[in-house]
Structures are given as C-alpha cells and as structure tokens.
Specification:
Elements (H helix, E strand, L loop, with lengths): L7 E7 L2 E9 L4 E3 L2 E2 H4 L3 H14 L5 E8 L3 H19 L4 H7 L29
Parallel strand pairs: 3-5
Antiparallel strand pairs: 1-2, 2-5, 3-4
Length: about 130
C-alpha cells in the first residue's frame, strides 16, 4: 500500500466540452482518449493551452495525465482539459492556487451558445426587412 501512487481526479468544462482528468505523479505523459497528446491535437496552440497550468506552477514533466474528453470542438476541448488539469493540480497541492488564479485558469468560462428564438433565423439574426 505504501508504494501506491496517489492520483487526483477533476472535471473541466468549456462550452459543451467536458474533460475528465486523472492526474498522477509520473514522467509527464499526457494521453487524451487513449491517444498521445500530439496524435489527438494536431494544432500546436491546443497543445500549448493544455501545458499552460504546468508551466505556471513549474511542474512540467512531474505528472502523468490521463484525459477522457467529449463534446465541443477542438479548441473547447483543449480549454476544458486545461480547466480540469488546473483543478487537479489544486487538489494535488493547494499552494498552486494563487498562481493559477492569477493566470485565470481556475475560473470556468461561463459563455455558452445562445438559444435560437422563434421568428429569427438564429439567436439574434432577423429576417430581411423589405420596405416595399
């Protein structure tokens, strides 16, 4: 029992993307839906967004991350993973919270898609007005 690694779980959300995170001490391996980070996210910006909490807390390469993410698009999934990693890091060490809060990673982005209204083409787009 003494040699068992302690892992921390957390959930991150952004728009309709939900990421379940499992954070455990390790060599810095990140797997997303049983695939390597580079295979799942082709864009370097998405990979950079996911690494931000580790760079902020100077813990790059100290934790293995296992992610299960669904819903949303590529960018929203990356932001959801970042949010989940931030929450898991705070569970692992509460001293990380001020730095992560200052960077803006702790707060969940509340923006969601506005619903479509009747009499409109989309949420706000009106039908074309014809004077004559």
């Amino acid at each position: 029992m003494a040699d068992r690694k302690i892992s921390h779980g957390a959930t991150g959300k952004r728009k309709s993307a939900v990421a379940r995170i499992r954070l455990s001490p390790g060599a810095g391996q990140i797997t997303v839906n049983q695939r390597a980070l580079g295979d799942y996210f082709g864009r370097p910006t998405s990979r950079m967004i996911i690494q931000q909490p580790f760079e902020t807390t100077n813990t790059t390469g100290q934790y293995d991350v296992s992610v299960n993410v669904c819903g949303g698009g590529v960018s929203a999934q990356a932001a959801a993973i970042r949010h989940g990693i931030t929450r898991a890091l705070i569970l692992a060490n509460a001293e990380f919270r001020p730095a992560l809060k200052k960077a803006g990673y702790v707060t969940r982005d509340p923006r969601e898609v506005e619903r479509k209204k009747y009499g409109r083409h989309k949420a706000r787009k009106r039908p074309q007005y014809s004077k004559r």
